UniProtKB/TrEMBL annotation:
Spans through the membrane: none
Limits of the Helicase ATP-binding domain: 33-201
Reaction it catalyzes: Couples ATP hydrolysis with the unwinding of duplex DNA by translocating in the 3'-5' direction
Organism in which the protein naturally occurs: Microbacterium kribbense
Upper lineage: Bacteria, Bacillati, Actinomycetota, Actinomycetes, Micrococcales
Enzyme class: isomerase
Name of the protein in question: DNA helicase RecQ
Source superkingdom: Bacteria
Enzyme Commission number: 5.6.2.4
Domain spans labelled Helicase C-terminal: 222-387
Family of the protein in this entry: Belongs to the helicase family. RecQ subfamily.
Known cofactor(s): Zn(2+); Mg(2+)
Signal sequence segment: none
Molecular function as annotated in GO: helicase activity
Length: 529
């Protein structure tokens, strides 16, 4: 650190009071700071809002030299650095948006030992002139923020992160830290290996966000459900609505505006000026609802986001957790709401099949989707399922939809058998495979053109499932998909038997299913006012 009042050797707690105005360290912060100040490496897994910044900024202020912060969030560096400077910290950044003159000023300050903190984009560290510059000055600590970007399987993979594994060799003796809010064992392992932090001390905080209420419901009419959900929120609540495609972003935002909701759109295809304007309104004004692709949100510092809604199924539990984690960073009650349907599952299987990558890669994506589906279809506590996914054991939370309104379950063995045997018969007798819609038509005894054309009314299971509605059947299909008893493949999401289906056909295992009654959307009012 170079600041006069909190120079090298200062007491970390004193720095915390002086620079940040906080009374005390929180959670693991004190232990992490102490370890890094003493020269140790650290991997810090802490949920969004957990207070990661302090854990590398304080060591940078206490140790002699400049703290190097690697961050992929170029758009935010300027704001982050401004906020630090406002607190009296000597901070600067190097990235591609700067003029050569501005860059030269920062470089000189670094070499003169005047900087406490230097933010750089990962791609700059792959430029020889940057590493040469850094070697000529003195580093106090190297902090790699958003370290999960090193994970090739993750949704935020950045190739430039792979080269960061060399930093330990290039700057021997400088403590290194990797920080992230993504905490699956898989990501954790990749961070450790690729950033060569095998000897680092691990700090894993609880990932529970108790103030977030999780709610997941079957999609019937996504727009109507979304509007009803937003209207059920307190007046003036700011929120984010995530959807998968740019087109859907625009259509949804437009629809919300026609419903009198102050909605704006955000996706990577919009001109930079529009994106900046929408983001600024979202950050500064009350009650703006941002409809966005996942391009929006990483690093957005708005503590009072009251809800995050998903109208398409996220691709993985990690993604869902990251996105919903943007709600309620101020600790006040917030809601994570998701509506998903069979169409989502089929569409995502199609994406996976069509994606580039080998079989292992596709299988990984498939497993991520299955875990997400299992969260959606669980009859147990959502939070318990979510935390369990991150390897954290917990009790039912009392603050999610399934805890507040335990779902009705029924024995789904017979309907499951009807569906599975229809698939088997079509396959064996005729060598045909179909998607959910047609199979449900057969089971419900519909007389569609397709059924007549193929003579499917002569199948033994034709009309055997007329006791369930179309929606009920869709729910059965989704739940069987979630458990892997069914698999959807190909462009049209044709259904085939999965592992364990034979056991169900023989009646050897129970199939408890949730009964997703229509109207659950409106009848479930779990929010406190
Ligand atoms: P993260 O980077 O883990 O998402 P931040 O470092 O942005 O979290 O911190 C989240 C919030 O918590 C910020 O508003 C920050 O000011 C606050 N905070 C962090 N540490 C403390 C502390 N020791 N005492 C009080 N507030 C803190
Ligand atoms: Zn719960």
């Amino acid at each position: 650190g170079a600041s006069g009042r909190v120079g090298p050797g200062a007491d970390p707690l004193h720095v915390l009071h002086e620079v940040y105005g906080y009374d005390a360290f929180r959670g693991d912060q004190a232990a992490i700071v102490e370890h890094v100040v003493a020269g140790g490496d650290a991997i810090v897994l802490m949920p969004t809002g957990g207070g990661k910044s302090v854990t590398y900024q304080v060591p940078a202020l206490v140790r002699p030299g400049t703290g190097l912060v690697v961050s992929p969030l170029i758009a935010l560096m300027h704001d982050q650095v401004d906020a630090l400077v406002a607190n009296g910290v000597h901070a600067g950044y190097l990235n591609s948006t700067q003029t050569p003159t501005d860059r030269a000023v920062v470089e000189r300050a670094y070499l003169a030992g005047e900087l406490d903190l230097l933010y750089v984009a990962p791609e700059r560290l792959n430029v020889a002139s940057t590493t040469a510059l850094l070697s000529r000055g003195r580093l106090s600590v190297i902090a790699i923020d958003e370290a999960h970007c090193v994970s090739q399987w993750g949704h935020d993979f950045r190739p430039d992160y792979l080269a960061l594994g060399d930093l330990g060799q290039r700057f021997p003796g400088v403590p290194r830290m990797a920080l992230t809010a993504t905490a699956t064992r898989e990501t954790h392992r990749e961070i450790t290996e690729r950033l060569r932090l095998q000897d680092a001390r691990q700090y894993v905080a609880s990932f529970d966000r108790p103030n977030i209420q999780y709610r997941i419901e079957p999609k019937v009419d996504a727009r109507r459900q979304l509007v009803a959900f937003i209207r059920s929120q307190p007046e003036g609540a700011a929120g984010i609505v995530y959807t998968l495609s740019r087109k859907s972003v625009e259509q949804t935002a437009e629809h919300l505006r026609t419903q009198g909701i102050d909605a704006l759109e955000y996706h990577a295809g919009l001109p930079a000026g529009v994106r900046a304007r929408h983001q600024a309104r979202f950050l500064r004004e009350d009650g703006v609802v941002m409809v966005a692709t996942i391009a929006f949100g990483m690093g957005i510092d708005k503590p009072d986001v009251r809800f995050v809604a998903h109208i398409d199924l996220p691709k993985s539990v990690e993604g869902y957790y990251q996105e919903t984690g943007r709600a309620g960073r101020d600790g006040e009650p917030a809601v994570a709401w998701l509506a998903y349907g069979l169409g989502d599952v089929v569409q995502q299987r199609r994406f996976i099949d069509a994606s580039e990558g080998d079989r292992t890669f596709k299988r990984r994506l498939g497993q991520h989707l299955d875990a997400m589906l299992a969260l959606c279809e669980t009859v147990g506590c959502r939070r318990q399922n979510l935390l369990g996914y991150f390897g954290e054991a917990s009790q039912p939370c009392g603050n999610c939809d399934t805890c507040l309104t335990p779902p009705d379950t029924f024995d789904g063995l017979v309907p499951a058998q009807k569906l599975l045997s229809t698939i088997v018969r079509l396959q064996r007798e005729r060598g045909q495979a179909y998607g959910a819609g047609h199979l449900i038509d057969i089971l419900r005894g519909a007389t569609t053109e397709r059924i007549v054309r193929f003579g499917h009314e002569r199948l033994a299971t034709y009309g055997l499932g007329a006791d369930l509605s179309d929606q009920d059947w869709r729910s059965v299909v989704r739940q069987l998909l979630a458990r892997g008893l069914l698999v959807a493949t190909g462009e049209y999401g044709t259904l085939a038997l999965g592992e364990g289906a034979a056991g169900v056909l023989r009646g050897q295992m129970p199939v408890p299913l949730r009964r997703d009654v229509l109207g659950r959307t409106t009848s479930t009012r779990v929010r406190k006012s």
